[in-house]
Amino acid sequence: MFTGIIEAQGTLRALTPKGGDVRVYVQTNALDLGDVKLGDSIAVNGVCLTAVELPGDGFWADVSGETIRRTAFVDLKVGSTVNLEKALTPTTRLGGHLVSGHVDGVGEVVSRDDDARSIHFRVRAPKELAKYIAHKGSITVDGTSLTVNAVDGAVFDLNIVPHTAKETIMADYRPGRRVNLEVDLLARYLERLLLGDKAAEGSAAGGISEAFLAEHGFLKS
Description:
The protein has about 220 residues and is mostly beta strands. It is globular and about 45 Å long. The strands form 2 sheets. It has a 7-stranded antiparallel beta sheet with strand order 10-9-13-7-8-12-11. Among the domains are: about 10-85, Elongation Factor Tu (Ef-tu), domain 3; about 185-215, no CATH class. It has 4 helices and 13 strands. It starts with 7 loop residues before the first strand and ends in a 6-residue tail after the last helix. About 15% of the residues lie in helices and about 35% in strands.
C-alpha cells in the first residue's frame, strides 16, 4: 500500500525484454533505498513494482504483460522521468489517501492552463471509471494522490499547486499525455457492498444501476 505522496523523481535507465515481458532498471536519484530490501514494493508512476535487484543507485523490477497492457508503461522509454514512492509502513503519515498501486485504467490529459501559480488540468478517464470519480473525492494520477475539483461526465479537473508540480512529473504534462489512474478504493468496495448477495452472481449481477438503486430504496420517485 501507498499514500500517493511522491517521494522522489526517478529515471528509467533500462528496458530489457525478458521472456515475453520486460525487466526495467529505475535510477532512484533522491529516493533513499537504505531501508529497501529485495522483494519490497516501490510505486513507479503509480504502478506497484517489486524490487528484484538492488545495485545501489536504483532497482530492477519485472513488468508483466498484464501491467504493460493496462497502464501507460508502454509509453515510457529509456530516459523517461517517473514518480517514485516506497510502500508505506505503520508509522507513515497518511498525507494522501490509501493507494494500492494497482492501476484501474489509463486517462488522457485534455487541457492545461495556468491558474495564478497553479496549473489547471482536465483529464479524461475511461468511461467505465467515471462512476468512481466524485467532486472533491480522491484520485491517483501516475501515483500522485490528488483531489478532484470538478467532474463533467468522464472528464475531471485538477488544480496542481507549485509544490506538487515541482516534486512530481506533472509539470511536464501536456494535452494528449496518457496517465495511469487509480480510483479511490472506498468507492470500489462501496459498489461491491451495495450489490449484497447479487455480488455472488458474477457478471450476471449487472453492477450498480439507477434501477438497482431505486429497487433498494436509494432513490425516491
